[in-house]
Amino acid sequence: MHKIEQMQMEVKRRLNEAKEEAVHQADEVRKTASTAAWWAFGTAVVSGICAALGGFFSSRTFF
Predict the structure, then answer these.
(1) Pick the residue with more confidence: 34 or 60?
(2) What is residue 60's predicted lDDT score, i.e. its pLDDT?
(3) Is the dihedral of CA 13, 14, 16, 21 positive or negative?
(4) How many angstroms separate the Cα of 16 from the Cα of each of 7, 13, 24?
(5) Is the pLDDT of residue 63 over 70?
(6) Separation of alpha carbons 35 and 39, rounded Å
(7) 33-54 pLDDT per residue, tens
(8) pLDDT the model gives residue 59
(9) Maximum CA pair distance of the chain?
(10) What are phi and psi of 62, to 5 degrees?
(11) 46 vs 29: CA distance, rounded Å
C-alpha cells in the first residue's frame, strides 16, 4: 500500500512539473510572438515613411 501511495505522489509531482513547464513555454511563445508583431509593425511604419518620402522627392523638380 505504501508503494502505491509513493507512486501516486510521484505521478502527481511529475504532472505538476509538466503543467508548470507547459505554462512557462506558452508564456515564452507569447512574448516571442508579441516581439515579432512589434517588429513587423515597426518595419511597416518605416517602410511607409520611406515610400512617402520617395514619392515626395520624386514629384519635386530640383532644376
Answers:
(1) 34
(2) 81
(3) positive
(4) 14, 5, 12
(5) no
(6) 6
(7) 999 999 999 999 999 999 999 9
(8) 86
(9) 96
(10) -105, 15
(11) 26
SS3 label, residue 45: helix
What are the distances in angstroms from CA 57 to CA 2, 15, 49, 60, 63?
Answer: 82, 63, 12, 5, 13
Complete DSSP assignment for 23-40: HHHHHHHHHHHHHHHHHH
User: What pLDDT, on a 0 to 100 scale, did the predictor assign at position 1?
Assistant: 76
Helix, strand or coil for residue 51? helix
Grid cell listed for 11: 505521478
CA distance 19 to 9: 15
| Position 62 pLDDT exceeds 80 | no
Buried b / exposed e over 54-63, threshold 16 CB at 10 Å, is eeeeeeeeee
